[in-house]
Amino acid sequence: MKYFDRTRSDFSPYGFTCEQWQPARMPRPDRHNEIEINLLQSGSLSYLLGGHRIDIGAERLSVFWAAIPHQIVAFEDTTPYYVVTLPLSDFLLAGLDTDFVSRVLHGELIIDPAKDKTDAFRLQQWEQDLRNDDAVGEQAARLEVRARLLRVARKTLGRSRLASPSPLLSRADQLACYIARNYQQPLTSSSIASANGLHPNYAMNLFRRTFGTTILQFVTEHRISHAQRLLATADDAVLTIAMDAGFQSLSRFNEAFKAACGCSPREYRKAHRAAMTKDP
């Protein structure tokens, strides 16, 4: 059973997970660069999300971008509930309606307007697939999470439409989307700004004002999340993982990973593998 760790570093990535959490009031907000999906099986939770208090009821899927400061401030009659964390890059590549994507990136918490009686079974299956460290099961879970989000978007927006490059996304959203799709490539603030038709100083100021972090820190968060997933699930060398995630040197990767996760990549892999081999 998971609990919020008040000592975790801000923006430390969770990666792709599906776990049951014990409801508790959080002493401080959390921030991490994934899309978070919650499903309560009973009771209710109250979040402070980006300065607004929002109530979530049972048996309705809720979706929000966890880079927005979020904090549970109250709960009632709540049993352990499901939490899914999906890397932002997966979310942006899921073919979702651009209106839906924009609303989530602007800090809106989306609640499925209708209950789906299959959700509890579905999330239980995702939890099992990921707990078993099964690559095929993980791939299936990723595809099923995307499919479930497509249905939420369709019901929320009242129409079905695949996403395509669109001016509906704000300038800041376009920068975030570009980074999420290209973080494995060599990137600088200037190259990101240029690719989106913006002056570097304007892009950097806009990004910080909108998201509360720098462009390069946002790139690093994506790369750390990517590396964290591979360290936990693949047997590739740490150097190979660092290069695959977009880092240009092993030393830079080790430095960034320890700053974000509080341990070295090798320590993270060892701890995760040890946890995965424990009896449930």
From TrEMBL:
SMART domains: HTH_ARAC (SM00342). Residues 173-271 form the HTH araC/xylS-type domain. It comes from the Bacteria. Keywords: DNA-binding, Transcription, Transcription regulation. Signal peptide: none annotated. The keyword DNA-binding applies. GO terms for molecular function: DNA-binding transcription factor activity; sequence-specific DNA binding. This is Melibiose operon regulatory protein. The gene is melR_1.
